[in-house]
């Protein structure tokens, strides 16, 4: 009989680890496949906005329209306003836009969910196998860390902006160490087409530039492949998102972002800014992948002690430097508003106000997991301590995956639709089809405004809304819409007034009674008794109907007539449709 070589045994073992990780990942995506549109999908900054933007490009047939004069009329149009510039939306050269064009919206969501997390696993695994934990006996640890990184709950609508960073770093480190292959160039070329410049791209380029300079300083030679790789990444980003970048530089329209008032949006007290930075350090931003970092910090601390005891000062330097870099990123975010306020209304101040140059925090998940791998290297590869730490981090990642936990709850029956509406219940297509049929007019001929619910629901169903959640739109619309809600803002809390006047990305029908809650389901029995809106301002923007998730008790005083109440078993909402008189 022939015996197997140690190397073949190790390869077989690592293959088994990878198969095990694949099985666990199938379990991870099971709720989304099993529940279908009955699954819960995160609403905040997702179904209420970014997800909807991708779908709007499909239903308006503008996904691949690169004309800077094109307008999207489905939101914030009416009266003298004709819509939002197409350049304010995602580029048609992005693979996520293509997926929404080709697939039904929920299917596109799940496909991108799978793609984003698979890219995260593959990228972290390759990075660890080649550069951090290359020895065969680290096979289990590198597979485990890669799987844990794949569980980082980053927003799918950002594509691979967060999860793809280890894969991109892998490619650039190969260039830096002069061990690159053609696949590394392919990764660099494709990355901008499945990520977004404004969220992470710019900051990735800056950090990669710093890594390259440091590496070349150590090598005492110019690494031309690395420089060409960074140039390729930068040029490809400029090419893929040229509409947005051109509009930003040349100000093809005055964005509402120029009216951001950071002195009101954020506290100007140093202690509050430090607390904000500390919170980000311990728990990264929700849309970049929020999870508790204390466990990784603790392991890194023990790793420093062990490395110092072995006089491994290079490792000590890395284990100390990476948390310091993370702290700097957090401080940039925590104190960014001081710079914007100090620059004021100068041209440079306007640029810093419109484009948030503090988003280095999008790099935190990758940084933390690189630190985690380096810290675990200070312990036995297959020792009890390593496995204990990995299991502990797995539990932390499960807790951090709120959306997944909710869907597991839906599978087991412990979470109800009233608590967390499913994709189907939230967008309520059957119910809004009834509303559309009742009005019986082309949807482009009238405008609606929503109360007690996100306008993305109406937009998803083809209605043209005066209200919307948009990160970028023409400034004059903010002031025209404010006339509708001026009295309600005056009656409401200071927080609500500041949120609109100093921010106003959510151009919603705010009321003093409902406050800043936009999710009133049919089981909540909420109502508005003293609504005071400017109906003339509403009609000036061609507002014809109010789509309300709550009854308006004094509708007649606001020149509104109840047309009909719509209820549908699958819907999260009960809709009161009011006609503007």
Outline the fold blueprint.
Elements: H1 6-35, H2 43-47, H3 50-59, E1 71-78, E2 81-85, H4 95-102, H5 105-132, H6 139-150, H7 165-176, H8 182-190, H9 197-219, H10 224-240, H11 242-250, H12 262-265, H13 270-282, H14 286-289, H15 294-309, H16 313-343, H17 347-354, H18 364-376, H19 384-400, H20 402-412, H21 423-427, H22 429-439, E3 447-451, H23 455-460, E4 468-469, H24 475-491, H25 494-501, E5 506-507, H26 535-540, E6 543-548, E7 560-567, E8 574-580
Parallel strand pairs: 3-6
Antiparallel strand pairs: 1-2, 4-5, 6-8, 7-8
Helix pairs in contact: 1-6, 1-20, 3-4, 4-5, 5-6, 5-7, 6-18, 6-19, 7-8, 7-9, 7-10, 8-10, 9-10, 13-16, 15-16, 15-18, 16-17, 16-18
Task: Describe the protein.
The chain has 581 residues and is α+β, with helices and mostly antiparallel strands. It folds into 2 domains: 9-38 and 90-412, no CATH class; 424-580, no CATH class. Helices cover 57% and strands 7% of the residues. It has helices at residues 6-35, 43-47, 50-59, 95-102, 105-132, 139-150, 165-176, 182-190, 197-219, 224-240, 242-250, 262-265, 270-282, 286-289, 294-309, 313-343, 347-354, 364-376, 384-400, 402-412, 423-427, 429-439, 455-460, 475-491, 494-501, 535-540, and strands spanning 71-78, 81-85, 447-451, 468-469, 506-507, 543-548, 560-567, 574-580. The strands form 3 sheets. The protein has a 4-stranded mixed β-sheet. A two-stranded antiparallel ribbon has the order 1-2. A two-stranded antiparallel sheet has the order 4-5. A hairpin with a 6-residue loop joins β7 and β8. The longest helix has 31 residues, at 313-343. The protein is globular, with a radius of gyration of 26 Å. The N and C termini lie far apart (91 Å). Residues 1-5 have low confidence and may be disordered.
